[in-house]
Amino acid sequence: MLKVLVIGAGTMGSVHATAYADMTQAELVGVVDIRLSAAEAVAAKLQTKAFKSFEAALASEDIDVVDICVPTYLHRRYVEQVAGAGKHVVCEKPMARNLEDAQAMIEACEGAGVQLFIAQVVRFFPEYRRAHDLVIKGAIGEVGNARAFRGGVFPTAWNDWYANVELSGSLIVDLMIHDFDFLRWCFGDVERVYAKSQLGRELNRTDHALVSLRFKNGIIAHVEGSWAYPSGFRTELEITGTKGMITHDSAATAAIHKQLRSSGGQNGGKEGSSVAVPESPLRKSPYQLELEHFMDCLRTGTDPLVTAEDAYKALEISFCALKSARTGEPVNVGEPMASGKVVPASSGAGASAVTVASTSTATGTQASTATSISTPSTATGKGE
Ligand SMILES: NC(=O)c1ccc[n+]([C@@H]2O[C@H](COP(=O)([O-])OP(=O)(O)OC[C@H]3O[C@@H](n4cnc5c(N)ncnc54)[C@H](O)[C@@H]3O)[C@@H](O)[C@H]2O)c1
């Protein structure tokens, strides 16, 4: 059984620690946080140990894997330290706050001969996975365009770090990266990016961004992200092809809706913690499926569904969008970034609550949990 230490006892640290505690493949040996009281609260709930530092945990426990759930700008520091100690790494998305850090993380893990798993979790949401698989097997023919939305309340967390663009990268890097990764999984590499956002007005706690992507294969996508909701969280997806269309709307397809009152987003991050994490009606949440998958990869030596290179490429798209939002100009993937580093061009392939509608004959609704496909009536690809 793999012995796992979680660093960070905030929103995601708590989600990850709970998943490991519920897993047969892993044993949660402890939780680390600079706020010992936060680590102790999670540890007490899950009957494990709390530590104030990685060094203290390392000195006390046998560890195989360290799962890093601290704010994004701290990822590199911990990945290098953990790899240096010869432990496998799981790290939350976005991989890092800049591409140099992301590259250094890959090199540190390669150099140390340990695995680096980046938790791009959308690939483990059944509705998105189903949509991906339908696209790949040609269920809606040749895809021309896609539209994705992801949004919720402005996140309020430790030290209000999400509100500082220099620390979080804004919702373009922190939130929309999920759809950038998903769309790249479906359609391959992106050539050009254009973005509009309210960057710089983050103190309003109503951030919103619109990003257009042109893929190398000619597909275009519109990705919209929001941290302007008064409460809740919602995702939407629409992919159109010559034979039909796939749609998903979390608000329409969720098996249950739960809304809790929260101070998040209302108090300027001064107290409390509230980061919207999508609900799942499944017995195993996508977060648990993802982490179990990473543990299985370690056990069997197989490649993960999302590689560190995939996570790097999604980050690359995010930074191109951030640059475009700042300059007002379209950005070709491969142009030098503000950091001075040239963004390499790349490749990749391949869209789950999903609906598929076919164009001519009757409107088939062939749903998985929440995926629907509609196909156009004739084979002309012209739907109604
Ligand atoms: N996959 C997803 O759906 C998802 C959702 C939310 C957040 N995230 C990502 O997870 C990461 C953590 O976000 P969060 O919302 O849990 O943040 P958070 O602020 O809720 O938690 C971060 C925790 O790290 C602790 N911390 C800060 N500095 C530390 C240090 N040097 N050493 C040890 N602990 C330290 C803080 O005390 C806090 O408890 C971010 O990268 C974020 O983007 C992913």
Automatic annotation (TrEMBL):
Domain Gfo/Idh/MocA-like oxidoreductase N-terminal: 2-118
Domain of life: Bacteria
Region (Disordered): 260-281, 343-384
Pfam families: GFO_IDH_MocA (PF01408), GFO_IDH_MocA_C3 (PF22725)
Any one Gene Ontology molecular-function term assigned to this protein's record: nucleotide binding
PANTHER family assigned: BILIVERDIN REDUCTASE A
Name this protein carries in UniProt: Gfo/Idh/MocA family oxidoreductase
